[in-house]
Each structure stands twice: as structure tokens, then as C-alpha cells.
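Entry 14. Structure prediction run on the chain below.
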Amino acid sequence: MRFLLIEDNAKLARAVVERLQLDGHAVDHADRLEVAENFISVADYDLILLDIMLPDGDGRTFLQQQRQREKRTPVIVTTARSAVSDRISLLDLGADDYITKPFDFAELEARCRAVLRRQGGAADNRTSFAGTILDSTTAELKFGDHSIDLRNRELRLLEVFFGAPGQVFSKSHLMDRLFSFSDEASENAIEVYVARLRKRLEGSGARIETVRGLGYRMVAA
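Output returned:
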């Protein structure tokens, strides 16, 4: 998944980015709304983490503008305000959730999972295809009597394929989902990860197929 963190506190932002990257997410960090707007103009995000008080404006105005533009990217607001009226106003403006500072990183991760799960219409953190189950909470791939532990970016790439079986994903799209602007990576990295996942899927009911000149898709074996 690719996240956008909008936060002007450098220490907090660094900690959040490092924690989410450990989970295999690609994270872009904007310390101002202007920078965030630039990022959004050239990249698609699965989730936005939005601070309210920023050097060049109010995060609530940013949120309102996103919803007026019919941008449906999920937004979790990080706020120091704990009054019920403040939380209600954020939800009414279009926030999908909020978390009060200071927060526990485990809670932030759980809220991210919950929002993404709701966005995808899933009841839990497991998805399945062709008798093969991907458990995002435990980072496991399960089929038959097999339970395979996944590395973080393997998990995130499989989430893309399991989220839309049969859909063709170009290498550039997969790069966008897996790496942030600050990551130094080429499309060859996608080939490496796909090769790893094909080995992980051996013996299961699912496989990743190359569509020549277009990219990859998940199909039934």
C-alpha cells in the first residue's frame, strides 16, 4: 500500500514513516499542504494520514477540498484535540477515522488496517482466491496444509493481486504501489518480487501470469 503522511512535526513524521515502512508500505511525507498537493497531483494513494495544524493552512480545509473534488482516498486525521465536538466535525467533513495525539503506533496500524478493510468491503483482514488465503494481519499465505510466512513487500504486492484477481497490473502501477518517491528502485525490482511470489504460490490454486507487453495478473492455476 502507498500512504501519504501530512505532518509538520519532523520527529513524529520520521517515526511514523519508519514504522509503516517496516510493515512494507510505501510512504511519502509532506510537511506542508503545498507539498501534499504536489504529491497528490502525480501519485495515487491508498490512505492519507492528515495532521490538522500545518504551517501553510488547516488540514480540515484540505480534507474538505478533497471531498468536494470527489476524491475518495481514505483519510485518517491525527489531532491533538480530544473534544467530542472536534471529532464529530472531522467525521462530518469526510474523515474516515481519527486518532488523538500522542498515539500508540500499534493503534495507528490497527486503524489503518480497519479503514483499508472497510474501503475494500472486507469483513476481516483475510482475502481469498482459488482456494488460496492471504492473511494480512499475520502476513501468511495459506493453502491446503501449507502456511507460508511472507516478507513485508511480498505481502503488499500480493494484496494488490488478491484485491483484483484477473486484472492486469503494469510494472509502473506496481512500482507506484510498492515504492515511495524517496525509494531508489527500478522496474526490475518488480520482476524480482514477482519471481519470489511465484515460488510462494507453487502448489496453490493461484498463480501470477505475465501478460506480454502489459504486465501481470493473478489467475487460477
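The two ends are 25 Å apart (CA to CA).
Filed with the rest of this week's runs.
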